[in-house]
Amino acid sequence: TYIIAEPCVDVMDKACVEECPVDCIYEGGRSLYIQPDECVDCGACEPVCPVEAIFYEDDVPDEWEPYVSANADFFDDLGSPGGASKVGKTDFDPAFIKGLPPMGE
Ligand code: F3S
Ligand code: F3S
Q1: Where is the 4Fe-4S ferredoxin-type domain (predicted)?
Q2: Which of the ends of the chain has fewer CB neighbours closer than 10 A, N or C?
Q3: Is the minimum distance from the CB of 42 to ligand 2 under 6 angstroms?
Q4: Could you tell me if residue 96 is inside a domain?
């Protein structure tokens, strides 16, 4: 799967959402999250993020490793809805993201 890391927090540009052919990028309160079971690893989202927040899971920089589990934790309750557009914006963030200081410019 691909992962959304720290640069997305409080930025949420959402250019990635338009690119994803399987609509698996979901909106939380402070970040977006890729559903790991729904992502087909097409990679289309990665180059369009203006802040370079998206990485293939094996390429996530060490300091952003907690974002791998944070992306998965976002879906603990939501599961695999099969499409972000029908879920829409949520106010939810996993504890790790919620506890971060304010980010972005
Ligand atoms: Fe975030 Fe970049 Fe997408 S800022 S919403 S990962 S385009
Ligand atoms: Fe979608 Fe990006 Fe995965 S475009 S299928 S979330 S690699």
Answers
A1: 30-59
A2: C
A3: yes
A4: no
